[in-house]
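Lecture 7 notes: from sequence to structure.
We start with the chain below.
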Amino acid sequence: MELLPLLLMFGLLGVMMYFMTRRQRRAQEQQQALQNSLTVGDRVMTTSGLYGTVVDTDNETTISIEIAPGVETEWLRAAVREKVGDVEEADEIADDDDDEIVESSESADVDPATNEPAVKDAELESGKQK
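Predicted structure tokens for the same chain:
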């Protein structure tokens, strides 16, 4: 009877370890698939947070990433964390957001000299308390 709780505890521990290693193995396989699928022109982010565009994938273990116009650096494939969207798409989204902000500020009667909301005389008088 004293052996049964011990066996259950080891069995439960074994099941937990199986599921933890399975999840880790799946994440590792996904990362390996990403690194093998890199092609020239892909926009990537490295594990250190550096963004760039893949310009050379001829080597099995390394890739060349252009981090600025004319500046190429060589990285291990394992240093690539993820593929990110194109710069042009991100710029277009940012431009759209800027337009929305400008439109909303124009409709709010903002004083361009101070960049504060313009206050009308009627609003000032109604807010006075004497």
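Points to note: The CA atoms of residues 50 and 130 lie 60 Å apart. The radius of gyration is 29 Å.
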